[in-house]
Structures are given as structure tokens and as C-alpha cells.
Amino acid sequence: MRILVTGGRTPLALDLARHFYNAGHEIYVAETSKLHICRFSNTVADSFVVPSPRFDPDEFINRLVKIVSDEKIDFLIPTCEEIFYISRDLHRFSKNCMIFSSPFEVLDSLHNKWLFHTKLKSMGLPTPAAVLIQNREDLNQLDLSTPYALKACYSRASQKMVKLQGEGAFFELNIHPADPWMAQSWVKGKKYCTYSLCQKGQLVAHTTYPVRFTVDQHSCLFFKAIDHSPIFRWVESFVREEKFTGQIAFDFIEDEEKKLFAIECNPRSTSGLHLFRASDRIDQAFFNQSNSTIFPKKGSRKQIAIGMLLYGWKTAFAEKTFGSYLKSLFSSQDVIFSFKDLKPFFMQVFVCFSYILTSLKLKLSLPAMFMHDLEFNGENRNEISDLTQAFEPERIDSE
């Protein structure tokens, strides 16, 4: 098959290209700039430059539609938040091209943190009490005798999340009904992430990994596949209820009583994908050709080595786990390195340097800049206020 993967800047897109190439398919990549790691991969037949979906969504779709038509693409796989723009215009693509995505309304109800919270409540699933914050008055009414996680309804990797507790915790935030935030009761416990592939509500591939070394307490940099039956059953039940198709990931916290709370949902690719090896044949899950759920080998480990070097040591120092950090750093395979495909690994230094220059130009942190032009934050979504106001705010009691 001729497969188009979007979001070519990410190791996720590179991993997908390698999986499908090894299975005998022809891989094409779309990205908003010429310089990205997939461009240097020998598994990619061609790479196309497309407009930013965030800042030029119409032209982004026009360009993708043309690529699909000109290159006779059979299968389109979005990896990052460009999936929200693609899913709104599924009808514009050729019927001969399969797109691995659920409809926009489903994706948005999972990506928007308040809507995801209300969905969990409607399904009877445990979720920390929360209040929708649409203006300064809502923020001022919070009882800060207990801590809250305050986060934008449209955000990713905890980049717009702060812990509020005690007097003087407030700060300047750009909060209004069209860009609401959510205050959620703070939950202590072990953190886990999942990554799954789904076909019409069936879980066809799945992995769970604990959160260890991160980018300033945000995105994971080290991944180790584990068995966690309660999380697996939770995800299996949820995607069945949603009849979900596509890639989906959840962030969980397990408290001291072993109670699970799904804190966030990412209906797109996440780094759990890296835990699957070529022998796992995850390509079969995308085409719904597997007879049972595919799992990576228990204990399988991967790392984003350049991220571990730039950020992972901070977690190690903060948690006094530097020995474990060094062991993980020197004993885990990098997500980009491959003996069969060396160029992306060596070229990532130059790619990363270009990203640093761009982050300085935009006055953004490197993690924030990395997804800046792919983000979906509810743009052109006039109905957001109606959807968020449809739910009564909850009262969070101090105990």
C-alpha cells in the first residue's frame, strides 16, 4: 500500500515509516518544513512540505488532498494534533484513501479536558472533582484550602498546567469563555501512560508504561512496557463504549488505595508506539489484520536519548535517582537510532539546532515550539461555549 504519514518531525512518524516499510509498504511523509528527521530516512519514498494546519488550515487540507490524489495514497495516518483539522474535512478526501481517524466530534470530546471529564462522569467512571473556569470570577471562587491542578481545556503534555494551593496562588492567566480552563482536585499517586490502537471499539494493540524521566515534569522521555491489568481493562472498556477507531492514549494516576483516575486523553499518536518492535507486526493492527490484541514484550525499553541528555537529568536530581537515570540512559535503545537507517540519528543534531533557533525567534520553550504550528486549541470552533456551558459546575468540598 501507499501510505502517507503526517507530522514528519516526530520520532513517532519515523517509527511508523519503519514499521510499514519493513512490512513491504511504500511510505510518504508530510511536514510543515523541509528539515525534519523523516526526510533523511531510507524508509521514506518522498517527503512533502505542507502549510501549518493551525495557521492555515484550509490550505493545509487542500495540499493534503492533492498529495493523496497525485500520489494515489491508499492510507493516511495523522500522528499529531493535525488530526483534528483532518478529521473535520474527512469528506474532502478520496474515498479510495482510508484515514485512520474517528470523526472530529469524537476526537474533540476526548481532547478537550473538560469534555473528557464530563464524559467520564456520564459513563460512571471515577474522575477527580472539577470546576470549569471561564473567567477571573470563577477562579476567585476556588477554595484553596485543598490543592488543584489548573489546566487549559485545550493543552498538551501538561504545558499549561499549574498546581494551585494556599493564598497568593493566583497569577495572570488569559481566561475567557472561548479559551476555558479547568480546576481539578489534585490527586497523589503513581503515574502511568498508555498507547492503544483501536478498530471500531476493539483494542487491537496496547501498551502501558510508568512515568519516570520527563521534560520538566511534562512529556515522557523513557518508556518501559509493563503489565497492568486494571489499566488494560479500563482502556478496553472505554474504547468499546466509544466505538473508537484510531490511536488513543491516556494519562492515569493510581492512588494509594489502587484506585485509578484517567486524568487526560490524547486521541492521537504518543510515545508508547516506540515500545513495539518490528516482530510485533503493529502494521497489522492498523489494517485490522491481527487476530488478537498486540502487546510489546514486557520489559521492552526505549528512550528519547537527546531529550534524556537535555532534560532527563533534572528529574533524576529532583528525585535523587541519578543512578537509575544513568543506567536507563546507557542501557536503553534510542527511538531514532537504527543500524538499518542511520541518517536520521546523525542528522537530528542539525534538526534540533534549527528548532532551538526557531524557539528563540518565537520566544517559546523548545517543547512548546515543537508543536506550535500543529496544535489544535479549539480554533474556529464557535460551539465551544455552548458545549462547555452545557454542564453545571461541580462543588469541590474541602475535606
Can you walk through the features of this model?
The chain is an alpha/beta fold. Among the domains are: 2-101, NAD(P)-binding Rossmann-like Domain (Rossmann fold, 3-Layer(aba) Sandwich); 129-186 and 363-399, no CATH class. It is built from 13 helices and 16 strands. The strands form four sheets. Strands 3-2-1-4-5 form a five-stranded parallel beta sheet, sandwiched between helices. The protein has a four-stranded antiparallel beta sheet with strand order 6-9-7-8. A hairpin with a 2-residue loop joins strand 10 and strand 11. It is globular, with a radius of gyration of 21 Å. The termini are far apart.
Quick tags:
13 helices, globular, 399 residues, disordered C terminus, four-stranded antiparallel beta sheet, five-stranded parallel beta sheet, Rossmann fold, alpha/beta
Quick summary:
The protein has 399 residues and is of the alpha/beta class.
Instruction: Give the fraction of residues assigned to helices.
Output: 25-40%
Radius of gyration: 21 Å
- Write the CATH homologous superfamily of the domain at 2-101: NAD(P)-binding Rossmann-like Domain
Number of strands: 16
The whole-number mean of residue pLDDT values reads 90
Structural class, please? Answer: alpha/beta
